[in-house]
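PROTEIN DATA CARD
Card holder: Glycerate kinase
Chain length: 78
Origin: Neobacillus novalis
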Amino acid sequence: MIYRNKTPYGVATVAKKYSIPVIAFAGRIGNGVESLYDNGFNAIIGILKGVSSLEEALDNGEANLAFAAENICRILKL
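Structure generated from the sequence above:
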């Protein structure tokens, strides 16, 4: 699995040992991410609001991430 070579995977596996929840944000969520839930990720959130080109996604990345993070914070306040 290609995810095992990524920093978020390493963070999640260490966090799991200490029962620390991990939420990952990704521009796009591809096939096969389900196994990540068994390896320390509690949630994986796609940040794109809709279909866009790579250029648009990169140009709006900061705003899209902020929007997604704000929504997660709203859920956690419930």
